[in-house]
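Treating backbone geometry as a discrete language has practical consequences that deserve illustration. The amino acid sequence and the backbone structure tokens for this protein are reproduced below.
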Amino acid sequence: MPWKEVNIMNQRTEFALRAVQSEESFRSLCREYGISTKTGYKWRERFLRSGLQGLKDLSRRPESSPRELAEAVVCEIVRLKEAHRAWGPKKIRALYERVHGGPVPSESSFKRVLERAGLVEARRLRPRSQAGRLFSGREAHEPNEIWTTDFKGHWYDKDLRRREPLTVRDEFSRYVLDLRVMPNAQTSTVRQCFEQLFERHGLPAAIRSDNGAPFASTRSVLGLSRLSAWWVVLGIDLERNRPACPQDNPGHERLHLDIRLELQDVQPEVEQAGFDQWRHSFNYERPHEALKMRCPGEIYRPSRRHYQGTPADLTYPTMDSRKVAGCGTISWGKGQWVFISGALAGWSVGLQPSGQPGQWNVWFGRLLLGTLDEKMLCFERTLPAAQTMATSSKGGP
């Protein structure tokens, strides 16, 4: 036969009832239940004082801790924080030590006190940017393999005009392709500058930028902006720095440091001429240790890929294609539209069966943007590890 299951609370209840009602020997009763006389008296007293609730196990947590902070210490921590609201627990602890000396509570104790007082602001997490997903960590091994570009951090001239020049650089040779005072950072203005660079130097294999406008858009699929979409149309790969990671583009950051140290005091009336002169000296007179003391101009050569203007559209010989409307949608059947991205307006995307019924991979040039579900009429962004062109002989609807 199976073993009889014993419930501890039932045992305690039964023992307590017999202990207060029975006239039998208390010691014999304790021996029957396998407990000491001391334990028996404990459970009987708890039952008489609190009823059945007294038979439950009590918390083992001590009512007080020998390391608990004194009320005066807690008040002083809060007072120091109120006087320095921007300081964190580590700085508040250091200030407390300077003011009071002697044994000081741990940093975690300061943090706990400030959290309980509601004086610690939760760290805000940056939204994950799809733009940064195009980071590959690739390095250039020849001129024009990767160009890097950015806007130099702004400053104000003596007339309080904001100056924020655009910089473009060849990563391999360190050659500064352009250092230009821009009237604004609008897409059309920056595109005109790059058109001039492409006409002069040819097309690079890839362009690396940060995730800011006009190079990228954090709200668009793969961070595509109208400018970077145009680069893709020209057959240029996109390289992006990871958000808040300037170490992904260290050479360009160093270039900006040199510009800040040497050019911020250039007079406005000769500003662009001064920039051009500095760029010529940087490229043809200044030796670089990384180039074995040669100048960038000795290494750089124009690209073999000549710029022949912007194509009318992207073509997908082995796929069906749809042109993206001005509002960022593509047509799917009669009167049905699916939103892809406003940055691709005017360009065509390719559609390739994904292998799942009713689902299509959506391509923009060599970039896989995501998957379109024809039943739900929705586009889901996907971020594959390898952004390579795939082909298919099947068409869409």
